[in-house]
Amino acid sequence: MCSINLDALLRSLVSDYQDAGHSIAVTGQLGRPIRSAPLALKRILSNLLDNALKFGTQVEIGLQGLAADQISITVMDRGPGIPVAELNAVLQPYYRVENSRNRDTGGSGLGLAIAQQLSLTLGGSLHLSNRDGGGLLAELRLPNRDA
């Protein structure tokens, strides 16, 4: 754990995706440093953004302080979403909604499981839900630890 500027980390991550030709909208900012593990946080967000870009369109990432003790980072897309009965299952290793073995259409089923494990390691949680109008919302909640 170390002091990180979460606003700068998000801007840098999104800039890398934009440099690769992807469009990602960013909303919100925290405005102060927090204590967290930057590599784990970057891995979580990369896995969520990779999925949003692979399966959806109109990808957005948002940041906000929920309360004195919690931060919310959301990754949203407009795509097919995930069947409600499978929202928790996709957080388990090797589980995929798309059952073919073709990596171009489904991957290995580890991205969300890794994001889930790392969020728990950081003292946070990862929640998935379908959006009204189509798409997925992945919300990472982290403890709001002052730097």
UniProtKB/TrEMBL annotation:
<keyword id="KW-0418">Kinase</keyword>
<protein>
    <recommendedName>
        <fullName>histidine kinase</fullName>
        <ecNumber>2.7.13.3</ecNumber>
    </recommendedName>
</protein>
<keyword id="KW-0902">Two-component regulatory system</keyword>
<dbReference type="InterPro" id="IPR003594">
    <property type="entry name" value="HATPase_dom"/>
</dbReference>
<dbReference type="GO" id="GO:0005886">
    <property type="term" value="C:plasma membrane"/>
</dbReference>
<keyword id="KW-0812">Transmembrane</keyword>
<keyword id="KW-0472">Membrane</keyword>
<dbReference type="InterPro" id="IPR004358">
    <property type="entry name" value="Sig_transdc_His_kin-like_C"/>
</dbReference>
<keyword id="KW-0997">Cell inner membrane</keyword>
<dbReference type="InterPro" id="IPR036890">
    <property type="entry name" value="HATPase_C_sf"/>
</dbReference>
<dbReference type="InterPro" id="IPR005467">
    <property type="entry name" value="His_kinase_dom"/>
</dbReference>
<feature type="domain" description="Histidine kinase">
    <location>
        <begin position="1"/>
        <end position="146"/>
    </location>
</feature>
<keyword id="KW-1003">Cell membrane</keyword>
<keyword id="KW-0808">Transferase</keyword>
<dbReference type="InterPro" id="IPR050980">
    <property type="entry name" value="2C_sensor_his_kinase"/>
</dbReference>
<dbReference type="Pfam" id="PF02518">
    <property type="entry name" value="HATPase_c"/>
</dbReference>
<dbReference type="GO" id="GO:0000155">
    <property type="term" value="F:phosphorelay sensor kinase activity"/>
</dbReference>
<keyword id="KW-1133">Transmembrane helix</keyword>
